[in-house]
C-alpha cells in the first residue's frame, strides 16, 4: 500500500473486501506459505536420515563424506525453507498492519460523517473502545487466521501425508486419539468463549470506571469522594482479576492437555515402530524412518493441540468484527471546496416560518410560528426572547438541528432544498460550546487553511493574552481548551468562526463569557470587517441591540421582527428585559 | 517501583511458591522424554525388541510434563494478574495525592491509558517476561548440562555460540523496542483524536473540516503503521535465523560424529544419543528464542513501566505551608464563616494572581465576586476548597484552614456548583450522591424539590435509577441537577462558579429561581464576570 494516499475500501462492511484489497500481499503470503509448510517436513526428514547415515558409518556401510554431503544438503534446504518462512511471516504481518490501518481509517471516515445526535446515542466511551481496541483484535485475528491456514492447514496435510507414506496402517491406528483431542477442544470451546466474553465485559467496566475516576477527579476531590471512588475502582479490579484468570487459564493451560491426548499415539508408534525396524511390523523400516516418523508425529500432535488456539483467535476476531461491522460504511470522500468558493452577498427571507422539533411520534412541535421578514447583506439582526422562546433553536435551523415549516430562502433558494455543501457555503455557525481542539492556538483558528491568524486574534481581543503565553500562537490549549480560561476559549472559538465565516454568520451567545468592554470592541471589529455579511446574533444580553439593524424578539410562540426603538415602545416584555440589564450596567462598569 | 512489586509479591507468597515449584517441575520433566527416546533408539540399533513398558514410559513422561506445564501456565497467570491488580490499586491511590494542577494540565485519556494499557504491560513483563525468562533460563541450563554430559564437544560448541546468539538477539530487540515506542506514541495520539472529533463534530461539519481531521488522523495511523512495519521486519527475521543456526549446529555434530575415532572420542555419541541430542538441540533453541522474545517483551513493557514510574513520581499535593497557619487570624475574625487574610498567590511562580487580598464573609451572607477574566475569581474558589494553598496570608473556613478539612466533612461544609455538571458513570441517583450511600432517598428528593426537578424525575419510568445519558435533560435541567448535587448534604456554604455563564436566558431564570431557593439560610459565594441576574441581598467584592 502506498504510504500517503489511501485507496478507500469498497464494501468495507464485508470482511472479504479487505482480503480482496490486499490480494498482492496475500499472493506472496500464499506462495511463501505453501513453500514453507511443504518444506516443514524437511527438518525431521533430514534429521532422521542423518541419524540413519551415522548408524551406517558406524557399521561401515557409509563414509564421512556421505554424512557431510547429506548434512550440507540439509542446511541448504532448511535455509531455503526458513527464508520462505521469513517472507511469509513478514508479508502476513504487513497484511494485518494494512488491514488494521484501513479499518481504522474507514471507521474514522464513517465516524466523522455522523451527526451530533447519532454520535451522542452511540456513547463516547463505547465508540472509542470500538474504534481502537477492536480494530487491533480484528486485524490480529485476521493475521492469525491467515497464518494458521498455512501453518496449521497446510502443515497438517504435509505431516499427515508423510505419516501415511511411512506407514499407512500405523498412522491410522496411532491417530485414533487425535479426534478425541479435537472433541475435547470443541467441548471446552463454549466455556472458553463464555470466559472470554466475561473478561471482555469486566475489562470494559474497568475502563469506564477508570475513565470516570480520572476525568471527574477534581469533582470527586471537591466533594470529598476520592477515597470512596477508589474503593469502587478496587471492586472493579477484583472482578477483572477473577475473570481474567479464568479466561487465561482456559486459553493457556488447556493446550498441553490436548497435546497429551494426541501423544497417546506414541505408545503404539514406539511399540509397532520398533517391530517395523525389526521387520515384524506393518512396513519394513530402517532407523531413519523410525526417528523421522516419531518426530513428525510429535510435531503433528503439537499442531493439533494448537488448533484450539486457532478457534479462540478467530472467535475473538469475530466478536470484535461484529462490533466494528455495523459502523463501517462505504464513504465517498469529497474534497471540501469551501475555502475556494467566493463569499456571495445574500438575502435571507423568512415567509410564514414555524420552527421547532419533531417529537418521538414524529409530530412537529413548533416553538414559534408565522415569522416573516427579510434581511439584506450587511445587516445585523439581534435575536432575543423571553425564557424558553427558542432563540437557540432558531439558529440551529441553519445547521439542520431544528426543523422548520413555511419557507426560508437564501438568495431566493429554499433552504431545505440546498445540499449540505451549499448550506455550508452560505452559513457559518457558532454555538455555546467552544469546540476547541487540543492542538495549538494557531491551528485552532486556521484549521489547516492559510489565513492571517494574528488578524483574527486581534479582532477578538486575544492577541495580547496570547503574546503573554509561553509559546505564543503555538501554545497548546489542552483537551477541549482546558488550559485557557472560559473567556479565552470563547474568544478563540469566535476567532476561528470569523476566520472561516461565510455569507451568513450565526453567533449564538458568543460573548456570554466575555466582559462587557471587550464585547463592545469585538462587536465593533466584526461590523467593520464584515460589511456585506448578514449577522444573526442570538443573545440574552441586549446592550448592543439599540445599534442593530433589526431585532427579532421571540415571545409566546410568536416573533416580532422590528428594531430596538419600536420594540421598546410596543412590547413591555422586551422593555423589561432591556431595563433590567441597563440597571445592572452600572454595576458592570465597576468591572472595567 | 521495585519496592511496590516486592510488596505485592510478598502478599501473594503462597501462590508464588507454588508457581516456582510448577516451573521447576515442568522444566525437569520436559527434559526426560528424549532420554527415553535415546533408550528406544539404542535398543533398536542393538537389534533388540522395544517393550511396551518403554513405550509407556515415553508417553507417561510426556503426559506428566504436560500436566506440569499446564499448572505452570495457570500459576503464572494468577501471579501476573495479582501483580497488575496491585499496581492498579497503587495507581488509584496516587490519584488522591495528585495536585489539582495535574488534572487540569493532563488529558484524562492519557492518565487512563497509564491505568489501562501501561498497567497491562506489567502483566506482560511478568508472565511473558521475567518468569518466562527464569523458566527458559533454567531449561537452557538443563539441556546444556545433558548435552555436555553426552558430548563434551558439542556442549562446548553450543556454549561458544551462545554469546553470538545473545548479541544477535539483543540487536533485534533494540530495534524492535524503538519501533514499539514509536508505535505507542502514535497510538496515544490516535486515542486522543477520536473523542476530540466526537466532541467537536458540529464545528467540523459546519466548516467542512472532515478532510482536515481525517488527514490528521491518517497521519497518526501512518506513523503507527510505519513503526509496526519496522518491528515486523525484525520479528519475521529473527526466528528463521535461529533455526538456520540450529541446522548448522546439527551439521557440525553429525559430521564430527562421523569423522573418525579421534573426533568421536571428543564428541562421543552413539546413534541413540545422536537422535536424543538432535531432539535436545531442537529444544535448546526454543528457550534461547523464547528468552529473546521475553527480553523483547520486557523491553516493550519497559516503555509502559517507565510511564507508570513517571506517573508515580509526579509531584504530590504539597502540604499547607506552616506560615499560612498563623493563629492570630482566628481571633480577629471570630464571627466569620469565610476569611481571606492578606492572601498572596501565584501558580508556579508565574504572574501573581492575588496580592495581599483580604475579605471576610459572615454566616448567611450572600457575596458575589466580580472581576474581569483572569482577575483571579476562580483562584479564590480553588484556594477556598483547599485545591491550592496560598503563598502568604491565611484562609479560614468555619475557623479551619482548608487543608485541615478532611474529606468526610467536606460536603457538610461546602456545596460546590461547578460551571458544568461533571457527569459521573452511573444513574441519576449517583449524579446527586456521587456514590455516597449515607445519602438517603429522602435527602435526594428534598434536594430535587428545592431545585424544582422533582416532577421531571418522577415522570421518568425508572425514576432515580434512570441511567444518565445525553439528551435525558435539557441544559438548564442539568444545571439544576448540579445544584441538587451541591445541596443534597445541606452544606453551610454554597459556592457557585459562573453557573449562568453558558446558559441562555431560556434556562437562566429556572436556574436563578432554584438558586434563590437553595441558598436560603446558607452562606453563598458566587463568581461572575457580569451580573445579568439578581440574587437577593447580595454583597459585591471586586477583584
UniProtKB/TrEMBL annotation, chain A:
The keyword Transmembrane helix applies. InterPro entries: AAA+_ATPase (IPR003593), ABC1_TM_dom (IPR011527), ABC1_TM_sf (IPR036640), ABC_transporter-like_ATP-bd (IPR003439), ABC_transporter-like_CS (IPR017871), P-loop_NTPase (IPR027417), Type_1_exporter (IPR039421). GO terms for molecular function: ABC-type transporter activity; ATP binding; ATP hydrolysis activity; ATPase-coupled lipid transmembrane transporter activity. Pfam families: ABC_membrane, ABC_tran. The keyword Membrane applies. The chain crosses the membrane at residues 21-40, 60-81, 172-188. It is found in: Cell membrane. This is ATP-binding cassette, subfamily B. It is a multi-pass membrane protein. PANTHER family: ATP-BINDING CASSETTE SUB-FAMILY B (PTHR24221), ATP-BINDING CASSETTE SUB-FAMILY B MEMBER 6 (PTHR24221:SF654). Its main location: membrane. Gene3D superfamilies: ABC transporter type 1, transmembrane domain (1.20.1560.10), P-loop containing nucleotide triphosphate hydrolases (3.40.50.300). Residues 348-581 form the ABC transporter domain. Keywords: ATP-binding, Membrane, Nucleotide-binding, Transmembrane, Transmembrane helix. GO terms for cellular component: plasma membrane. PROSITE patterns: ABC_TM1F, ABC_TRANSPORTER_1, ABC_TRANSPORTER_2. It comes from the Bacteria.
Automatic annotation (TrEMBL), chain B:
Pfam families: ABC_membrane, ABC_tran. Residues 338-543 form the ABC transporter domain. It is found in: Cell membrane. It is a multi-pass membrane protein. Keywords: ATP-binding, Membrane, Nucleotide-binding, Transmembrane, Transmembrane helix. GO terms for molecular function: ABC-type oligopeptide transporter activity; ATP binding; ATP hydrolysis activity. Signal peptide: none annotated. Its main location: membrane. The chain crosses the membrane at residues 12-32, 140-168, 237-260, 266-285. GO terms for cellular component: plasma membrane. Residues 17-300 form the ABC transmembrane type-1 domain. InterPro entries: AAA+_ATPase, ABC1_TM_dom, ABC1_TM_sf, ABC_transporter-like_ATP-bd, P-loop_NTPase, Type_1_exporter. PANTHER family: ATP-BINDING CASSETTE SUB-FAMILY B MEMBER 10, MITOCHONDRIAL, ATP-DEPENDENT PERMEASE MDL1, MITOCHONDRIAL. This is ABC-type multidrug transport system, ATPase and permease component. It comes from Acetitomaculum ruminis DSM 5522.
